[in-house]
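Shipment paperwork, digital attachment
Item: protein structure file
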Amino acid sequence: MSQKLRVLAIDDHVVVLEGYYYMFQNLEHNHGELEFEKAKDCKTGYKVISANRDTPFDIALLDYSIPQYEDKQLHSGADLAALIRQSMPKCKIILMTMHKEIDIVAGILDKINPEGFINKSDCTTDELSYAFKQVLDGNIFYSKAISNYLKRKEKGIILEDIDVRIILLLAKGIKNKNLSTYIPLSDSAIEKRKYKIKRILEVEGNDEDLIHEARTQGFI
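Attachment content:
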């Protein structure tokens, strides 16, 4: 790294950006003087990235769900991450998300392969600081939900998004007879899905047991 630690943080919540700045100010590291750039959406993020092509960032923190920049076909933090990968290949990327949808998680891992990937519901402030330091030191950091996904994938335990939606609805107290109101499937098709889900998760009990196991394995 250079004598200065150049950090880019992109999030549409000002308080989050201030929190990241505070964490890096107080982070124990030997990477030089801190230079911290902020952006609030895909448009301002694009402008900051474009303006710094000749002085690349050392690390970038990007929220997945930020306002789009339609003119440049930038729809998420993952699209900005791909732009950084192309223009600043040595920049370490940490992506943050609240999403647990399989297609989103899998897409980020496949297309970006970030040095850090964090589900916001997994980490405390102290754990975030630890994650930042780990990535700065050249390590990979994935939060619990992401790590659990990778472990399930290795074991072949993968549910489709519609399966996860069924479990989430059950967890919210929606009755089986009303699931078809929220899921575009017939009652019999939903029951077949539930049977498949229980088989994959090795659940022999009722819906409460299914919900419990889904939570244990990090699906919800």
